[in-house]
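Technical note accompanying the year-one report. For the benefit of new consortium partners, we illustrate the data format agreed upon in the data management plan: each record pairs a sequence with a structure-token string. No post-processing was applied to the example shown here.
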Amino acid sequence: MISFDTIVKGFPDKKDYPNTTSLKFKKDLYNYFFDSKFRGVKALEIGSHRGHTTKVMSHLFKEVITMNINPKGVDWIPVNGENIKYIVNDVYNGLPWHTSVSNDVLDDYFYDIEVIFLDALRGYENVKTDLAHAIQLQPRNKQKYIIIEDYGNAKFDGVKHAVDEVCWWGHMEIVKGIGYPTGTEHGTMKYVDWEAVICQTKELK
């Protein structure tokens, strides 16, 4: 197993490059899911940008499917990500993720996903849509872990609003805060709660 420091060598921190997750987020994510019970798990990432977090996830899980609106650029990080499936798709086209991709064969990629990382648009309605799709992934009665970036970022208060509302309705619960803690400030970036949260869905009947 490659060490965390080796995986993130040369990665920028969020305070210097706001389009990525913080190095503390990546470390906390690594520590939480660095467990043999997650080794055979399939994970899904919504919004990947340059793939910094994607690379970390690829060292934690058996397979990572990442959906992004743009094709991979020349600055895509996980060059040798053999267990990463990159899908170009607009996740806000009004269709569930598993039916919005033109190739029907890809439906199999969306079955039995246990970990979902949401890092796409930050608006309240966008996050509510992402959470609904994540919870509804088949099989519906299987508990899932959902990680939401910028939960406590004051600039994107719709993220926290959406997450707290879905938790209030009883569909999931926050099990851990990760990344920058409450009170962190870097320029215009201010956190009124944890940078991100790991949630676990409630069992659906």
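Partners are asked to follow this layout when depositing records. The two ends are 37 Å apart (CA to CA).
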